[in-house]
């Protein structure tokens, strides 16, 4: 009997052994679409199938070939691979699995990889892609689709939000359903050739952070590498610049005309979908509405009750800041701000403090109303969130409305502090 860990090691190997595939895959409990399931598990399967319908059954047919190999039905695997290749002639993983199944039928014990038919780097990329797709269907928490990424504390009025799990190579599209984030699609995704956590220009890594779609570029205006189009995001953001991260041109884009899907780590820092998936998700992305894109190293999944509890705790932090502002108690108000590297280096703390004290002395009352537009836990950082809101300010000598953004981070004493406001 082989463990899930053994299976992972198997997918990391440079060779695809057909016998090993049959033994290793069959040792792990599988999520079969035809097997009886509980209501909750059925809902999870239904959610996953949204992604399949988005790409014309590409991923479902890839997994069906693996299932046929798993069952020892090698002729059926060849038939499925033939059908898959007919529908998706650019599918490199389809051609690879067909060759493996044929090798098994003719008595071969190893795949085309051992015969040198593919360069080692190409083979590793294809196996990595298969592993990501297979792991997504067989992840240990098979009900994770019934949960919500912890980043999505409050999506406000945004019609759609995109969340990337770069460790698993998956891009999730969530729809705003009366203020609740509901999974609408999920897609296999490629990221930077050197992984993720971008620091400097040219490091071939995809950034981690909270961004927005800011424009669309049609495929005909781009080199073939970018496929059917591109949606640039606003990297580097303020926090990136504060950390002196460099680089530019981080896009969500498609694949070249001779490729269906790239290996999980393949780009120069962009995050990449197949052209079919890009065209599908493109229906829901809006540069005008600045669709939020959360590029996360990994996703923490929470139940809706857990998410609501976490959201309430952070909204209480924001509300206390608002109350202290309205109290005209300058000391209580400024205690919410981090003095070191004040406002991410955009201003002098002492000058700001003196100005706030002077303003409060001249007022008899302050009223602040906040309309939260979004509240996201910041990926890649422990205890940090970004909140965007419309602010209505009223006092005895001034009134006004403005759009604001704050970055909050918990300090070493466990207190939440505003590290940026603007």
Describe this structure in words.
The termini are far apart. Strand 4 and strand 5 form a beta hairpin. The radius of gyration is 25 Å and the shape is elongated. The N terminus is likely disordered. The longest helix is centred in the C-terminal third of the chain and has 23 residues. The strands form five sheets. The chain has a five-stranded antiparallel β-sheet with strand order 2-15-16-17-18. Strands 5-4-3-13-7 form a five-stranded mixed β-sheet. A four-stranded mixed β-sheet has the order 8-9-10-12. It contains 13 helices and 18 strands. It has 422 residues and is an alpha+beta fold. Helix 5 runs antiparallel to helix 6. The chain folds into three domains: 134 residues, no CATH class; 155 residues, L,D-transpeptidase catalytic domain-like, CATH 2.40.440.10; 118 residues, Nuclear Transport Factor 2, Chain: A (Roll).
